[in-house]
Specification:
Helix content: over 70%
Structural class: mainly alpha
Radius of gyration: 11 Å
Strand content: under 5%
Number of helices: 3
Number of strands: 0
Largest sheet: none
């Protein structure tokens, strides 16, 4: 479970990298930590979102 979440955060970080907003990336990290304690519903929504973006 943790590994899967890590991948989701990595992909999200990559998308923000090109944005050129270093500050934004920091916020993303904070949000990722908040998702951990969040319900599984949020995590499930993130999984299908990853392949969709690809």
């Amino acid at each position: 479970m943790w590994g899967e979440t890590g991948i989701a955060r990595e992909k999200k970080k990559e998308g923000m990298s090109p944005a050129g907003d270093g500050e934004n990336a920091s916020l993303d990290d904070d949000r990722g930590l908040t998702i951990f304690p969040s319900p599984p519903s949020q995590h499930l929504t993130e999984e299908p979102d990853l392949p969709d973006l690809r």
